[in-house]
Amino acid sequence: MKRTRTPSLPEYQVTDQAYYLNRRQVLAAGVLSAGICLSSKADISRVRDQQADRAPDWMQALNREAKTSPRSTQEALTPYEYVTGYNNFYEFGTGKDDPANESDDFEPFPWEIEIEGEAELVGKFALEDLLKGLAVEERIYRLRCVEAWSMVIPWLGVQLSDLIKRLKPLSSAKYVAFETVYRPEQMPGQRSFFAAIDYPYIEGLRMDEAMHPLTLLATGVYGQSLPNQNGAPTRLVVPWKYGFKSIKSIKKIKFTRRQPNTTWQLANAREYGFYANVNPEVDHPRWRQSEERRLPGGVFQANRIPTLPFNGYGDEVASLYAGMNLKKHY
Amino acid sequence: MKDFLLSRQFWWVLALPLCWPLSLVLTTLYVEPTALGPDPAQALVDEFGKITLYLLILVLGVTPVVRRTGWVWLAKQRRALGVSVFGYGLLHWLAYAGLLLDWRWQQLGQDLLDRPYIIVGFVAGVMLLALAVTSNTWSVRRLGSNWRRLHRLIYPAVALSLAHVFWVARSDYSEVLAYTVIVIVLLALRRIKSPH
């Protein structure tokens, strides 16, 4: 990767003898700012070290049984502090560090998921019962955000298709819709007056996408149960789509006949589509999608890599879209 | 003009806001690699953008404050503040072009054509450039009454800058709305003649 040139010193630092004394004052101001900067970093250091797993025993036991999977990528993992400290989870705030800093009050257990729609097994079920007996695997997946950055994350979870089979969807079920929890008293972002999106957050998959072996219902990350900021207690990971499809803190699963309207589609249909497959040939009005920054990057050296169709999972999923115009169905 | 340009005040005003991003960069490079987060290039683009916006709002506030307080020293800083708006806008653009896009001119050109928020930002930048290069005493003398007219460009520059920030916002509009309200208030204060 080409190394960018370091910028030359700003002119004010090239001092004349007459201003030597002033330079000390400038340096002092700089050190003061650095001090303020370092003290404000306490928030990042809060999540740098992995904390003890606080999930109930049944969840910890489930995650402990995780087996490795051949579907995992061999690429370098994104460090824990960024996986759990740099998140888009607007329910807790729109800054990248808000989810980590503002989710302490969130209680992921006990948790129930409501199953609705075209299936035999509908009703409210405890998460523990829904997942009982399902095989948990560690799946190391690439996650590509629509904002043109990406991470490599070691998830733990069950294959979504295993859960879906258990729920016995009817033949009329063509899509699966998911809904995030709505808890404004524990999620400050949901109280914002000028939020760009409506809550609760809704996402959806076509039935064959939901049943695909790659689609994961995650219960943990980095060997432990999910931290709140990563979508505790359970979330989707759909690695061949943009990250916003991987809905977090799932409270409802609904089998539907028609394609559900997803939150981002409703917020801005021109920018966000239903399929949202990672596609270097379809630009977003805000972000060029032909390449991405693999995090973490250096100050003067962002890790720019070309974006692959379907985030590099084309071999496994391209057949789902055979014959579809992916520029039209973005 | 020479005296003013070399005056400590000018450099202080220009340099002071640099302390913040500079300390972040130095901290990241030498003390704590996580200081700017995992996407430091984007973080720097955002920091410089924020500083530009804050300085822009500050510049708009000078006239109404001076009219009401009679603080001549503040009035004297307006030129430096104005130039620094352009300066930090330039740093914002340099961080984007250099750190994010690695000086790929084809991509830069493509972005300029395709992305509305970049178009308005760039146009605002061009306006600020015109204001910055004509901010010296020589220009005031040469342009005469046209100088005042030219420097009214600050108003569309502010509007385009707010549109730029609005269009960049993906998630929440609270911040850009707050800035817009502040700008409207400051502009309104200019129209209301003070008893001074």
The parts of chain A where pLDDT drops under 50 for at least 5 residues are 1-6, 11-21, 37-47
Roughly what fraction of the amino acids of chain A lie in strands? Answer: 15-25%
Average pLDDT number of chain B: 89
How many strand elements of chain B? 0
Please mark out the parts of chain B with pLDDT under 50 across 5 or more consecutive residues, or reply none. Answer: none
Total count of domains of chain B:
1
Number of extended strands of chain A = 13
Largest sheet of chain A: 8 strands, mixed
How would you characterize this protein structure?
The complex is a heterodimer of chains A (330) and B (196). Chain A has helices spanning 20-40, 42-48, 57-64, 80-83, 98-102, 127-131, 160-167, 207-210, 263-267, 314-317; strands at 67-68, 112-117, 123-126, 136-144, 149-159, 175-180, 202-206, 216-221, 224-225, 235-237, 250-256, 291-294, 304-306. Chain A is of the alpha+beta class. Chain A folds into two domains: 19-48; 55-321, Sulfite Oxidase, Chain A, domain 2 (Alpha-Beta Complex), CATH 3.90.420. In chain A, strand 2 and strand 3 form a beta hairpin. Chain A is globular and about 45 Å long. Chain B is mainly alpha-helical and 196 residues long. In chain B, 80% of the residues lie in helices and 0% in strands. Classes of the chains: A alpha+beta (330), B mainly alpha (196). The interface between A and B is large, with 54 and 52 residues.
